[in-house]
Structure formats: C-alpha cells, structure tokens
Amino acid sequence: MKKGFLYILLLTIFQYSFSQSNLSWEGYFSYNEIKDVSTAGATVIAASENALFSKNSETNSIKTTTTIDGLSGQTISSMYYSEASKKTLVGYENGLMIVINEKDGSMLKVVDIINKQLPSGIKKINHFMEHNGLIYVSCDFGIVQFNLTTSQFGDTYFIGDAGAEIAVKQTAFFNGFIFAATSGGIKRANSTNANLVDYNQWSVINSGDWSSVETLDSELIAVNSGGYIHRYNSNVFIGFLQLPQYSTDMRAVNHNLFITTPNTIYIYNNQMILSRQIVNTQVLNASLIFTCATSLGDVINIGTKDNGLFSSSLSVSAAFENNMPDGPLRNNVFALDVTPNVLWAVYGDYNSGMNPYPLDSYGVSKFREKAWLNIPYEEVFNAKSIVNIIVNPNDENQVYASSYFSGLLKIENDEPTVLYNEKNSGLETLTFVGPNYIDVRINGSAFDKSGNLWLTNNMIENGLKVLKTNGRWQSVSMKTILAKPEDASYTDLIIDKNGTKWISMNTEGIVGFNESTNTFKKINFGTDLGNLPTTDVRALSIDTKNQLWIGTTKGLRVLSNVNNFQSESQLTTKPIIIMEDGLAQELLYEQSITAIAVDGSNNKWIGTSDSGVFMVSQNGQETKYHFTINNSPLPANAINDIKINNKTGEVFIATTKGMISFKGSATEANENLNNVYIYPNPVRPAYSGTVKIAGLIDKANIKITDIEGNLVYETISEGGTIEWDTTAFGRYKVASGVYMVFVSAQDGSETKVKKVMIVR
After folding, report:
1. 3-state SS of 449-508?
2. Are 666 and 27 in contact (CB under 8 A)?
3. How many angstroms separate the CA atoms of 69 and 77, rounded?
4. Does the keyword Transferase belong to this entry (predicted)?
5. Is the pLDDT reported for residue 11 higher than 50?
6. Which of helix, strand or coil describes residue 270?
7. Which DSSP string do the residues of 153-204 spell out, in sequence order?
8. What DSSP state is assigned to residue 735?
C-alpha cells in the first residue's frame, strides 16, 4: 500500500513532528490513570497512561500533551522534569524515552533501549535520577546513563549476579556512592569508579527485593517490596517502620519524604518524623487508589489509579481539589456512536473468542460541545462489560447501550432509566452454564426506518430481538438458518434500505434476514457457500451504492448489491483485487479487520487489529491513507471502532490506547443547496490549508472564477463537501481578491452563488 503512506520516519533518534498534518487531528484522551508526577517551577506535571498534562499554580491553566503533539501511544511508566536543563523526560514500559525541550517545545524520541538486544519484557523504564548533568535511568534490566546536554546514552550497568540483567527500581546518590534498589538487593558503587560497567564494582548492602531508595538531606531511606521502611547507618539499612501496605512510590521534595501506598500517603520531615498522614477517605472514598505524590510549595499533589490528580494544602487540613483535563473515563474505548451533535463511548470488551471474562465494571461517556459527561458504573445499574452503544436517529436524547452480560441499558436525557434483562423484557440468558446462572449477552444493534430497535442476543435460540416503538418485544428464532444457534456469538448488525438485517458471527459467517418475506440467507466460507475467507466476521457496512463491505479476521470481502438478497439463492462475495508493483493483489489480504465506516464521499475507513487504519477509495482500488503509530498520531495500531460525523466529516477512531479523530472533508450530501457555506472566509495570509465548500448536494457542479469571470477551478462534488487548494487548476496560487463560487445541481434545477475573499 505504498500510495497510502503520508510519510515514514525511520531514524533511530529524531525530532518527532507531524508537520502540518497534525492540524487535521484531534485527541480525546483519558487522564484518569496517573503514572507519575513532577514539578517545574510553578507548574505540576502529571503523566497519565499515555499523555501528559500540567497545571500552573499561578494561572490555574491546564495544558495537555498527547500523541497529537508527538508523544507515543505506548504506556508511560515514569516521568521526570530537569530544572537545570528545562527538559521533561518520559519513560515507557517498552523502553522508549522521549525528551521534551521546554525552550522550543521539540520532542526527541530515543529508541536506544528499545533496540538493545534484550528480551522485550525487561526494557521498562522505572525511574530517572539526575546527578551532575547525567540522568541515571533505572530499567528492568539495569541502569543506563543519559547525557542531557548531548542527548546521548552512555554506559549501561548490568549489576545482577555475574553481570546478569536485574530489575532496578530506583537509584540515589549519597556520600559519593550510587545506591540501587533492585529485585536482588540494595547495591552500592563508588561514583568516582571509572569501571562501573564491571558488576564486581557493585556490592550488596542488603539482600532481598527492594522497591525504592531515596536521599533525604543527610538521610538515605529505602523501602523493600513488603513495605518495610529502612534507614541507612553508613554500613547497612536498618529497619525503621513496617507499613501496612506495600509502597508504590517514594520521593524527597523540599526536605520532606513522601511515601505512597495504595490507600495512604505518609509525609516525613528530614528527621524522619511523621508530619502528616493522608488516607484515601480524606481525599474521596475508600475505593480510591494512590499511585504517587509530590509537593509544589505548600500544595500536595496526589496521583491516583482511576481518578486523576488531587491537590490540597500540605500544611493544613483542607478539602482536596481534583485537577484534571476533561476526558473520557478510559483510553480503551471499545465502541462508539456519533451523530452530528454528540458522541457516545463505552469500554467493556471481549476477547477474540467473544469471551467477556473477566467482566468489566465501567460506565459510559458522552461528548458534546467540547465537554465530556462521564456516567460511572454505579449509575448504570451495575451493567457490566458494555460493548456497544447506539443513539436513536429520531431522538438524540435516547441512547441504548449493549451489555455483554447484563442486558440492554436505556439512557434518556443523559440519565440511565432502565436495564432490560431476562426479567423485564424479551431478552434471554444463556443456559449452558446452568439454569441458575444469569448471563444476558447483547451486542449488535440497529434502528430500522420505523424506529424499531433490533438487537442480537447471543448464545440462545431466539438470537434476534426487536424492541418496537410501542415498547413491546419480539423474537426471531435462528434455528431455521443455524444448526446450533445456542453456540452463536453475533458480532455486528446493520439494516439496509430494504429492511434486510445483516448479522455477522464469529463462527458462522453472515446471516441475512428480511422480516417482510420471513426469508433467511447465509454467506459462509467456501466458493460455493459465499466465498468468505473465514467464518469469523467482525465488521459490516453498507455504502452509498448498496454494496455490503465485510471485514473478517482474514481479510475483506464485498457483496456487490444488497438488493440481490431476494433474487439470488446463494449470495456470493468477492475480494477487491488491486495492482501493486505490477502484480494483482487482494486488498487487505489476511488482515484482521475490526471496523468499517463509509464517509460522505463513499470512501471506506477500515480498522484492523494490528495494522492501523486504511482509507480506500469508493471501489477500493486506491489506498488514499494508511495511518499507523509510525506515521500519524494514532496511539495504537489495534483499532476497536470507527465512526464518522456525516455532517462535519470528522472520523473518530477508537484504539486500545486512546481515541483520536481525523478532520476530513467528506461529508454526507444534502438534499438541496439552501445551506451552502464556505470556510474559512476570508482566507488570511497565515492560513496554508484548503478552502472547504460545504452543504452541497451530491454531484453538484462547482465553478470558481475571479471577479472578472476567469475560471480558476472546476469540479463535481462527491458527497457534501469539496476542497479547493486556492490555486488556478494547480498551476499557481491565485492572487488576493474576491472569487465567485457558482454551484449548480447536475440537472440544473438548483443554483447557488457564493463569494470568498483571498488575502495574500
């Protein structure tokens, strides 16, 4: 797919930038899970799962840094701000390190640790310690030196037995020695020794498994993995206090020592006298889990696992304030739905075998007018593993969320109102576990033209359900088309313009059902049975030409016309064959496809389980884009869902590591030309993008002329929006002035004239 790549970055160490392309992207990240905190002058910086945010104590302004700005979508494990160099270091679980220069905002992506010939599972960066311009990076294999001035790595210390790899959790300098808290004891070496790469220069001070070591003025403190605090007596570490829980973080700040456990923060002065103790119920409630803590002046900042960052006065007991950017509940958005005005997201999931266990306990999220509304698990009637969500197209205030364990959740005016299950509806529980085990698995959902809601109820005989507009339930037995419907797990459901329901499954291909004729038909694996590459189908979408696009775990298929459902006894799909390097190839051959969406220009946006997003032309012959973590702000190549705002053209992409959107221009065609508009208008000198002419009908003719009538551009619309690069047919940029835009319907029945001003 060479045509599809916007650009490729192949440097080991490079300045990370998306040039002007990042103007087309927007991030929607969760900041709830705090991995680390640091301070920079009057600002506290927090590292969440895969993004940073900072709050300035003087201005109260909050700034975010995400993959849109150049961060990786991988999981952050540590973060440190160097006051001396004005640089922020971000460490990742996979060994990646990013250096952010405060002076110019540049990002340096350093992959030396990733490239080390070591097992991938031991490259996690645990801690940064600065001394004399050098950063000592504690990793799961040892210690690495990093020079902040040259941005180059120095020596690597493998200090395990016989020079083996060993997990180093934290390092500290004390009285001329480097101390390392490791999984195999606390080790010490003379900092002036020129041969620290020799493991023999590192002596064991105390054996055992240690989580942290830190210098507190004239004290050296260490905590072992069991939560036992120790003080160094110039020879060995002596037990000081047994904490009731293990420690998740320890750091010295402004002559105070902060020791964090999951439910308590202990603050000691430099004489190791406990000055304050904060428990989670003082901050929020008993379910709150602490991850780290630091102070900025007289303000303590506490990071949590699921609830973001809290702050309060350090010296006096005061209420805690939650400081966090607006965002969804979690980054792993499993499914979403989008209308012109609102977006809904859910977080439950199931594995490749459609198993939802262990069950998830998350709520749902709504995004509207640049603000998030998060409805927690406790308010959705404890519905577990919510895997799908749909907005009623006739009533945007009515939403239905599918739980893959608890049934169907109805939300009205942002309030959960009822949980439909086996007791109060036509939904049914699976029975193979036993008669007393309740497990109501609802997945795919779609509204028909009459406003009825169709649902798939998995692993039962009557697997197709409908909730009528009058509130009554009906069931459709799948026994006439499936040999054993009790084993069927349905993955997707869509309804075409003829009212035919297309239902995909993970083991039985696709079933089509037309209610008016009570007809079932099946598309399966094998050339005589439908020509699917596998019976495991995960995504369905119908385009503007009534073609059914089918995403399977082993590639893509297309049913040429859904209207053939009634006339053909065996429906047959075909692959898309493209020419690449002079050879005929199958588009997305063997790719595991997870999502398909059709934009206003009938282009297809195709998500995969591990290869990012492909955007292909109407017929699939041209790959216009192929977005991955290497050439775009995608936080992960594993795509869960894709939905498109047909009014604005914005493409929302949900990944396992966060959700972003691509601000495209392919919008749905309008019924008339009453709402044609141009943006930006005027076009100012600093603007380098394209001019959009929106609100069009399909196949409208657009002519653009200068004020004297000279034609500078002409095109035919596909969908509701076209773009003009402000050139005269691509030859040169047009001069300053007023330009006339003439829009007419294909048959000449409608016309519209607009103006746009260009200022160079």
Report:
1. CCCCEEEEECCCCCCEEEECCCCCEEEECCCCCCCCHHHCCEEEEEECCCCEEEEEECCC
2. no
3. 19
4. no
5. no
6. coil
7. EEEEE--SGGG----EEEEEEETTEEEEEETTEEEEEETT-TTTTSGGG-EE
8. P
φ/ψ bin of 530: left (φ > 0), alpha (ψ from -120 to 50), beta (otherwise): left
Q: How many whole angstroms separate alpha carbon 39 and alpha carbon 191? A: 27
Query: Distances from the Cα of 628 to the Cαs of 14, 67, 581, 596, 654, in angstroms?
Result: 18, 12, 22, 16, 13
- Which is it for the CA torsion 123, 126, 128, 134, positive or negative? negative
Q: How many CB atoms lie within 10 A of CB 545?
A: 12
The whole-angstrom separation of Cα 719 and Cα 699 is: 7
143-183 pLDDT, tens per residue?
Answer: 999 999 999 999 999 999 999 999 999 999 999 999 999 99
Residues 556 and 576 sit within 8 Å (Cβ to Cβ): yes
In total, the chain counts a number of residues equal to 760
User: What is the tens place of the pLDDT at every residue in 532-575?
Assistant: 999 999 999 999 999 999 999 999 999 999 999 999 999 999 99
Alpha-carbon distance of 163 to 480, in angstroms, equals: 67
Per DSSP, 581 falls in state T
pLDDT-based confidence at residue 22 (cuts at 50, 70, 90): very low
Q: Are 38 and 81 in contact (CB under 8 A)?
A: yes
Among residues 138, 92, 124, 82, the alpha carbon closest in space to that of 250 is found at 138
> Could you give all domains of the chain from N- to C-terminal order, each with its CATH number?
329-481 (2.130.10.10), 677-758 (2.60.40.3110)
d(CA 49, CA 324): 13
Helix (H) or strand (E) holding 283: helix 280-283
Asked if residue 721 lies in contact with residue 741, where contact means CB atoms within 8 angstroms, the answer is no
DSSP string covering 92-138, please?
A: ETTS-EEEEETTT--EEEE-HHHHSSS-GGG--EEEEEEETTEEEEE
Question: What CA–CA distance (Å, rounded) separates 343 from 651?
Answer: 11
What is the H or E stretch that residue 282 is in?
Answer: helix 280-283
DSSP string covering 657-718, please? TEEEEEE----PPPSSSTT-EEESSSB-TT--SPEEEESPPTT-EEEEEETT--EEEEEE-S
- Number of neighbours of residue 757 by Cβ within 10 angstroms: 14
- What pLDDT score was predicted for residue 699? 87
Q: Which amino acid is at 733?
A: K
Tell me the C-alpha distance between 319 and 736, whole Å.
58
Instruction: State the DSSP H helix or E strand holding residue 625, giving kind and residue range, or none if neither.
Output: strand 623-627
Give how far the C-alpha of residue 189 lies from the chain's centroid of Cα atoms, to the nearest Å: 42
Spell out where 327-472 has E strands: 335-338, 343-346, 364-368, 371-375, 386-392, 395-403, 407-412, 415-420, 442-447, 453-457, 464-467
- E strand residue ranges, 515-622: 519-523, 537-542, 548-552, 555-559, 577-580, 583-586, 593-598, 604-608, 613-616
The radius of gyration of the chain from alpha carbons, rounded to an integer in Å, stands at 30
Sequence-distant (6+) residues with CB within 8 A of 674 are 695
Q: Please tell me the distance from the alpha carbon of residue 509 to that of residue 514, in angstroms, as a whole number.
A: 17
